[in-house]
Amino acid sequence: MTLVKEAPARPAGKRSAAPAAGRRGRRRENLAGYLFMSPWIAGFLLLTAGPMIASLYYAFTSYNLFTPPKWVGLDNFTTMFQDPRWQKSVEVTLKYVVVATPLKLLLALGVALLLAQSRRGQGLYRAAFYMPSLIGASVSVGFVWRALFSDDAVVDRTQKVFGLDVGGWIGNPDYVIYALVALSIWQFGAPMVIFLAGLKQVPRELYEAAEVDGAGPLRRFWNITLPMISPVLFFNVLLESIHAFQVFGSAYVVSDTRCGPADATLVYTCYLYQKGFKEAQMGFASAMAWTLVVAVALVTAVLFWSQKKWVHYEEAAK
């Protein structure tokens, strides 16, 4: 008969000492993480979440910055939808989005296809094409663009851009919007870099197999390149559409009459600025802001819904 000697049982206090110490260590780590995040959390609550909640309340009030807000319910929204200038701002903004976004993405994709090929000085070319995006839609660029497209004695009246006489576009209600579109297209560096990253992920074996089968450049682009970079294309379409809805600086600076002439560049955010800060109608401006948020959210939802039909994630992953 073999006798098995049982090990002495550990005291209850010693058995739970290690897990308790581990929990205390995790709490200290979490506390340190929250301390490092506290500046961002404070900034988010004070500069983003707080103003958003306040503007949502002001959207249902009559508030002019000088008197306490007065609750008016949906009056701001009903007045806004009946306002001819608000309708004009929606029309101008939609025109800008529909024209500027596709042209910008087409140019970005075309240049990305050229830069994806190996050649000498490739880094220099990429930096040169990306440079305008680093400048951004600043006030200085707006004044330069205004001088380029204006009909002024200081500027030569025979400016030519791609063979077109652009002198006087700033003062012409029929053409001034295209000056803003040209400025947007000129700054195509950011989507170009994203397209370049997507093109680098396309396997070369697919192109080689297509060439063996006799596929030409256009067919390879349509059947291989576009499906493989469709997730990147979707990301650029989504991002650039949202940015186009928020255009303000170029419309305000480039036009010689501040979002004119004849409200030709009265984009949505420009009219929002006029109502909020020039006419001190903060309630009306808040209603406009939240309407824009809802509109952009709907456009985003439609794009996400449509991606099921033309974005190919599985093929891209292979």
UniProtKB/TrEMBL annotation:
Superkingdom of the organism of origin: Bacteria
Annotated membrane topology: Multi-pass membrane protein
Compartments, record wording: Cell membrane
Broad class of the protein's primary localization: membrane
Keyword Transport included in the entry's annotation: yes
One Pfam family from the record: BPD_transp_1
InterPro entries xrefs: ABC_transporter_permease, MetI-like, MetI-like_sf
Region (Disordered): 1-24
Keywords, in A-Z order: Cell membrane, Membrane, Transmembrane, Transmembrane helix, Transport
GO biological process, one term: transmembrane transport
Keyword Transmembrane: yes
Protein name listed in UniProt: Putative ABC transporter permease protein yesP
Organism field: Streptomyces davaonensis (strain DSM 101723 / JCM 4913 / KCC S-0913 / 768)
Gene of this entry: yesP3
